[in-house]
């Protein structure tokens, strides 16, 4: 075991004396570190003897008391001060605070070099190093013995907690929810304290830091490779687990989380293949029901949700975030839009929490397997409404009207009435009328700008617009006509941008 403060004081060749904090003589010293920086506690990782020539110690009573309290909060085992160096007078308030905390304060006689103390601590740590190696081997073995059962994550976490004699929690730093579904919740009182701590900006947040909360030490430690995964540890004994062992513990948890993410990514690929087949109508109702059940999505009451973001990467982990909160999905990602099938029990608040900011959300009405294609159309309509109205989340038939229309049927009817003749013509003649119409409207009805954008002659553009007028029977010089066509194009693009090519009527043959 590591040397205690009392054992270090008892070494006659050092000549150390205790000035205050006798109640902490049983503290174990994992390392001896020298620093004269102002905020000495920021260099503490837990269990250190902090040695200073005194430049770190404030001269006033309030500052000295706060100095002692911060060292204890950070997990320092003791403070050693060089005699006849730069330390101010140690005031009675400081010594009383050290007795109360307790924080052992050791006088280092002049001219004993700090390195002699560090050597004594290091020599005493040789046996501790052997113990550390054995414990490290045991915790890595836990990764192997946890196996691949459904509860292997909880088994691994429980095994690590037993080995470290601590309570362990793996949380999402952003919201302090358990990182895995079914994970243990933080005690309410601790969650409130940690909410305040984790609200710090990233530049002020440390990846490994002990905190002193409600008379107990709590470790907050980042888990590698997962930016928002936070290990919270509450030791059950006064002696803190070894820092190196804790670093290995975080690595093991990171490896297990990575294994889980790989499994989820494989599920995502399978889900994307299934959902595309279902939406394209290549699966029967029974097949859709069975496959939804395979992905833990209720086949008799689920939602289809369409999510859009300017940066498609924002949507890459939505399926993982929802899984972590207990909702499995089948999903596919196309362009900057994500489409997913999920249980109808998913609340709007949890969905918004999982997808993050700057994402528009369209949600279908609750559906069954037989209605999965229509549910996709409803979610796209709701998404178009969200984008068109600037609303964060829209549920189909519950949201605001979009361009004066309230349903997919109304929108589809408008598209078919105005644009179907053009689709029919383009299917048989391979024309560019829709592209020309959209460009013409986007360039404020300028013949010259439209021709330049399409690399075509101005007369060609005029001919195409006349053809559109002929096919639709509309007067292209009328503002009302252009407004109707613009509405139809907006609806068509929103409903079809992430869908297969729109259905086109075949030209009847005489």
Automatic annotation (TrEMBL):
InterPro entries: CdaR-like_regulators, PucR_C-HTH_dom, PucR_C-HTH_sf, PucR_dom. Residues 7-123 form the Purine catabolism PurC-like domain. Pfam families: HTH_30 (PF13556), PucR (PF07905). Residues 433-491 form the PucR C-terminal helix-turn-helix domain. It comes from the Bacteria. Gene3D superfamilies: PucR C-terminal helix-turn-helix domain. PANTHER family: CARBOHYDRATE DIACID REGULATOR, DNA-BINDING TRANSCRIPTIONAL ACTIVATOR ADER. This is Purine catabolism regulatory protein. It comes from Arthrobacter ulcerisalmonis. The lineage of its organism: Bacteria, Bacillati, Actinomycetota, Actinomycetes, Micrococcales.
